[in-house]
Every structure is written in structure tokens, then in C-alpha cells.
Amino acid sequence: MDIMDEHKRKQRKDEHIKYGMLLEKKLKRNAFDDITILHNCLSEVDMESIDISTKLQSINLENPIIINAITGGTSQGKIINGKLAGIAKKLKVAMAVGSQKIALNNKDAVDSFKIVRKINPDGVVFANLSADSSVEEAKSAIEMIKADAIQLHLNVPQEVVMKEGQKKFTGLIDNIANLVQNIDIPIIVKEVGFGIAKEEALILAESGVKIIDVSGKGGTNFIEIEGRRGKSQASYHLRNWGIPTPISLIETIDATQDKVDVISSGGLKNGVDAAKSLALGAKAVGFAGYFLHILLSKGSLALEKYIIEIQKEIKYVMAMSGARNLEELKQRPVIINGKTYHWLKYRGIKT
């Protein structure tokens, strides 16, 4: 790769962090406000016996929280990944690295990803590449960090708006199916903040995908980020593009039923959002932008405390709804209101 292209790629990664943190402060409405878990006044749950462990296919998780894909490839990315890996190890939460494409082309960037496995040798770690990557690239990314699974991210809106982004997406579905057939660890197909509709969720399931991360609208907005980088007017008009996370979660679960394990991410802020996702049927919940905001503004200890608080809040909701484990939480009635209700009704999904 040309040295100048490599420099621009590193610069872009650091700019994603910079503008992502600026936009994080603007986020207002929480789409999870439309979701209510029914209170159980006769709960007989013993708080000390609540079990929040879960499973993503063959991967056992002690709790459902995932530090989702954030960064890597730069000196700043290495520092961030190191701090996140330390927290993941201490709290026994899964962690995904950011896109490793830069490290496949530049050996100097490899350590910014390897540090995660170095600090957390026995933890659950996910590799990350674009869904248009080759089998060889995927295997290299997996080997780089001894990954337990690999995220294949879908980012058409980001690429379209990005001045230097990709503009051709032909063959993506076939490529995903080929990767599923030739990679021997779980594959997670993941959006990057714009959600997955039931039609595409079904296509992914029929292609052999067993884990889907909906990563819906409500969190980090890469259209706005790329718009700020490139000073694009179009990005302003497109800033509301996407499917809100709870809607995408419900659509995906409705389409795939028990064929796919679904991860809820995109704008989750706290344990109540997480519990609502789990009650709707998610097997795990991912946090990225908000965790990074806490890490960079308040430090590692603050983020560590916040994740512990999320775990507590999930358990509080379970106790108040009468659920001893996540499977029982999923059986508790959920009331859906507002925009989410009307969207699902229009889409023919029973609420």
C-alpha cells in the first residue's frame, strides 16, 4: 500500500474517534423508551441466585455485555484497546476490536490489535473485518488476535458518504456465504449503526449466518462522522437514515426465530436498555460509542464502575419482573408503544 494512503487511513481512524465523541454529546432520544417490561408484584426471585450468563452459539459468556468494535491501527487506538482489554479481563466481558484491515496491509498496526489478546489471554475476543473480505484475510485477522469469533461489518451508508469510500457492493451476499462455509469459528454479521431489516436478516440466516448484531440507529452515526470529515451537505440530509435499534432487533428476531442468535447494539446507554433488549430476545448486548465516551472523558476506573452498574441494573430489572435467568426474562410480557409500535404494525409484525 502507498505510504500516503496508509497515512490517510490512520488519520481517518483517529478522526472517527474525534468526531464520534463530539456527536455522542448530541444524542437525545432513546428509542428504548418505547419498550416497557411488565412489572411483577409477586416476584419470588432471590437476587443472589440471578444468573445473567448467556451463549452465542458455541461461545459461553458469563454475562451478556460486549465491548463492541471501536478502534485499532493507530497509536491512539493501541492505547484505547489496551485499556478496554484490561477492563474486559477484570469484568469478564467479551470484547471486539475495530476493523483490522489496516493491520493486514501494514505490520506496524498489528500490535494495536494484538495488545488485546496479550492483556486478556483467556478472554472472549472478536476479530473484525468488512463483510467483503476474502477468506484469507479473515483467517489472518483471526490468527492475529487468536479470536473466538469474527465480526463481518456492513457499512454501506458510511462508504457511500465517505469521499474515499467504496462505491461497489456487488457480490456481498455470496461472499458472506463463502466465508461462513470456510471459517471454522463463529461468524457475527454486524451493521455499524443503521440496523438490519427482517428481509435482510432472513437472507443472512439462509446464507448460514448464525449470529447477527443489528447495530441499529441510535448510537454512533457514521454518516454524520464522514460528513464532518468531508464537509458534505448530503450527510446532513441523510443523518436520520437507518432503523432504530429496538425495531431492528424485533424485525431480526421475528424473521429468523430460533435459527440465529441476535446481539442488540446501537445507542444502548444503561442496564435498563440492556434488559429491554434481552427481554425482547437478544442473546447479548453491545456498547461502543458510549463506553468510549466514558473512557476518554472520565478514565478506565469510571468505565469499569459503569459496566458493573449495568450488570446490577440488569439484575434489578430481572428481580422486579420475576426472572431468575435471561430465558425467564424473555418470557416476561413486554409492552411496545410509540413510533416502535406503529412501525411494527405497518411492517406486519405482531407486538
TrEMBL record:
Its cofactor is NADPH; Mg(2+); FMN. Keywords: Cytoplasm, Flavoprotein, FMN, Isomerase, Isoprene biosynthesis, Magnesium, Metal-binding, NADP. FMN binds at A69, I70, T71, S99, N128, K190, S215, T220, G267, L268, K269, A288, G289. Mg(2+) binds at E159. It comes from the Bacteria. It is an enzyme of class 5 (isomerase). GO terms for molecular function: FMN binding; isopentenyl-diphosphate delta-isomerase activity; magnesium ion binding; NADPH binding; oxidoreductase activity. Residues 172-332 form the FMN-dependent dehydrogenase domain. It catalyses: isopentenyl diphosphate = dimethylallyl diphosphate. Its EC number is 5.3.3.2. Its main location: cytoplasm. Signal peptide: none annotated. One of its GO terms (cellular component) is cytoplasm. One of its GO terms (biological process) is isoprenoid biosynthetic process. It is found in: Cytoplasm. Involved in the biosynthesis of isoprenoids. Catalyzes the 1,3-allylic rearrangement of the homoallylic substrate isopentenyl (IPP) to its allylic isomer, dimethylallyl diphosphate (DMAPP). Homooctamer. Dimer of tetramers. NCBIfam families: IPP_isom_2 (TIGR02151). Belongs to the IPP isomerase type 2 family. This is Isopentenyl-diphosphate delta-isomerase. The lineage of its organism: Bacteria, Bacillati, Bacillota, Clostridia, Thermosediminibacterales. The gene is fni.
